[in-house]
């Protein structure tokens, strides 16, 4: 099972819409996946006491990562970086088990012309530190407001890149398991 992580807790975000599109791509390709949406994080995880003892309501979030064969992180760019809630989520996960030798793939979206390049580069460094297996074919989605119309990606070339990434990531995971 691949976990598709919607990397913001912003309600109604473009990130969640893109994550849903990616979920359809994986499902249509016959690749088992599940969506983990940071908008659904339990409020008690933000209590400072959570650093020492995670609330029970956080267990399904940790298990979704720990039980996954790979993780696809879909992240927006906020102020030249990825959302703080995504970093906090990573910090709350068990160390080192959550990303140690786990395949990770990246999709970035932004209003600007770089498509969350900075966000993904920063996440890349963090997850390399965590010893994740980083899939090199990243997808950047600049000008998301023009690319995404009525909940659909209008750019067929971009859809092709997402489909190619999904197929390649599944093969990458399989190669690491053999």
UniProtKB/TrEMBL annotation:
It holds the Pfam family FMN_red. InterPro entries: Flavoprotein-like_sf, FMN_Rdtase-like_dom, NAD(P)H-dep_reductase. It comes from the Bacteria. One of its GO terms (molecular function) is FMN binding. One of its GO terms (cellular component) is cytosol. Residues 2-141 form the NADPH-dependent FMN reductase-like domain. PANTHER family: CHROMATE REDUCTASE (PTHR30543), NAD(P)H-DEPENDENT FMN REDUCTASE LOT6 (PTHR30543:SF21). This is NAD(P)H-dependent FMN reductase. It comes from Prosthecobacter fusiformis. The lineage of its organism: Bacteria, Pseudomonadati, Verrucomicrobiota, Verrucomicrobiia, Verrucomicrobiales.
